[in-house]
Predict the structure.
Amino acid sequence: MISINKVALITGASRGIGASIARRLANDGFAVVVNYVGSENAARNVVTQITEAGGRAIAHQADVSNAASVSTMFDQVESTLGNVEVLVNNAGIMDLQPLAKADAQHVDRQIDINLKGTINTLREASVRLNHGGRVINFSTSVVGLKLENYGVYAATKSAVETLTAIMAKEMLGKYIRVNAVAPGPTATELFLNGKSDELIDRMAKINPLGRLGTPDDIASVVSFLASTDGGWINGQVIRANGGVI
Ligand code: NAP
């Protein structure tokens, strides 16, 4: 039986890395909020998996790019489960284009969700998180790899890395640790969609460990950062990528 006492809010937890994080933190003893934007059934499935394993979870629809929806989400979570202890800013999208084709929609959507979405939850977390809480943002190892076509996406994530370091300083006196995880290529829809089998195989083979990351590889790092053992890590970006950079 899992002993549950703290609340973890994971944005974009209906699929991919976020769903693994939700299951992992529930197993670690957190009551988890499975945020999603459109995939209601998938989010409910994650909640069912957690509750059937003896954990506690609720699903909550909110578009992170909408500041009012994010504020309402925090209100509802606080009244249902209590104050948030751990915020995981995992929700994100990726749209690959060379800069020559970076039209307004391509730019705005990625900035709205990846950057403004993170700012929207960080603003709420700054004033609402329990003292001693944790914020775990999501960047990407492409910030280091600097691959062609990833320009706008990587730029939004570079900004998230900067926000991470600054918020860690702003939490002075609250003991809230603020870090970012920067995965390398990880086998989810975000990475796999639109790529040929041959390209996926090539990208797996350039990794010193010879494979893509899995969502559970990344959830393990988040679990550590959310744990007591991770308490001396603050203001950092952890590249979790098997050594690809
Ligand atoms: P994914 O499989 O595409 O899942 C994305 C999740 O984000 C879904 O749960 C989706 O919800 C949610 N989401 C999208 N827009 C949202 C919005 N406006 N509001 C709330 N939720 C929203 O992606 P993933 O690969 O797990 O990526 C998770 C994070 O890791 C992202 O920040 C991504 O940039 C980062 N990352 C991934 C990789 C990789 O190779 N996979 C590498 C580096 C970094 P719905 O299901 O409701 O649409």
Notes: Residues 104-128 form the longest helix (25 residues). The mean pLDDT is 97.
